[in-house]
Amino acid sequence: MSTIKSNCTAYYGPHEARYVAAESLATGTVVTALSKETYATSKGSEVWVFIEWGSAGSKKRGYVKSDWLNITENISTKSPYTESGTGARWVKLNISPTVYRGPDSVSTTTNTQYSSAGSLNAKEQVTYLNEKVNNWALIEYSTSNGKMKRAYVNADNLTGTISSISIASPGIAYTVRDRTIPGHLPYGGGSLNQGFNDTNTTIYKGHLGYDIGAPNDFIKPLFEGTYVSNKTSNSGGNGRTITLKHVVNNETFFTTYCHMASVESFTNGQKVFPTTILGMMGGSGNGKDDYYNPHLHLALYTGKAQDSPYGYCDETAKKHSLRLL
Fold first, then answer.
1. 8-state DSSP, 268
2. A GO molecular-function term, please (predicted)?
3. Residue that terminates a domain, selected from 163, 181, 200
4. For residues 206 and 316, is the Cβ–Cβ distance under 8 A?
5. Which domain does 139 fall in, by range?
6. Based on the domain organization, do 207 and 313 belong to the same domain?
């Protein structure tokens, strides 16, 4: 068995800033090391260890840095985001399933061995990390403060088909300006400051996107997709941007996220998930980092990927823009 070297905090995932803090662990706490994962940071790579601790009925799993731990087990290295099978899933209709800190080894439907980690909303989008133990799926999902959690949910509560939950129906959330976006949808908890060109949400005619006052500073993809390009300067009307390609229900389209304060680095074609952090929300544009009040201008469109699709047009130049929100 492994032990904690000195007082530390266990997290719901392998990063201090991006995942929710789970709880404090005291020096000498006995734990079981399950696997390890390398997480790249601006200061270099960090190795995080997935551990388990606690007694029957209230066991827990979480992550600590490897140098916080005296490790005795021979553990393997995992790379959840590169494993085949990882991908977007959605909670089924009319349920709000409980998620747990570990997978019950006896029951496939009721978890009596591990503590609860909270619950999910019906139709909420999560990322399946290609680990399923006794029908308990390891997932990653966003919380209301923008940080993420990893936890286990009964796999029967998830679906891999977006059409089965009607999340792609146009106008189901963003129909009234300043309305709070429902929690189960992307950017849930944020507000719509200005919508796509219509009579209900748009202040200025020809607005080619959604201006969202997000509930936190993290910008994440609407859907699973692949990285296309970014613009790291604050020049132009859209400032810093990142563009992704998506295929949903056999429809290929692009999303561009604008006015960002910072943009994460990706390689061409790199896969991204709804929980992937693309960068930080900001107000960049026209050569300044604070040209606008902080918000996300989100453009959705078909045709050709663009680093900086301009935010307005006249009626004759209107782009074909999808309304998948």
1. T
2. metalloendopeptidase activity
3. 163
4. no
5. 81-163
6. yes
User: How far, in Å, are 8, 19, 147 from residue 51 at the CA level?
Assistant: 13, 15, 20
Torsions phi, psi for 312 (to 5 deg): -135, 160
Number of domains in the chain: 3
* pLDDT tens figures, 170-196: 333 445 566 677 666 677 777 777 777
Residue at which a domain ends, from 123, 143, 163: 163
Residue 150 to residue 157: CA distance in whole angstroms: 16
Contact 267, 216 (CB under 8 A): no
Integer Cα distance of 278 and 177 in angstroms: 25
The answer to whether the CB of 246 falls within 8 A of the CB of 222 is yes
Tokens of 284: 């960049």
Residue 173 inside a domain? The answer is: no
Same domain, 57 and 130: no
Contact 286, 239 (CB under 8 A): yes
- Express each pLDDT in 139-175 by its tens digit: 999 887 778 999 999 999 998 765 544 434 333 344 5
Asked if residue 209 and residue 154 are part of one domain, the reply reads no
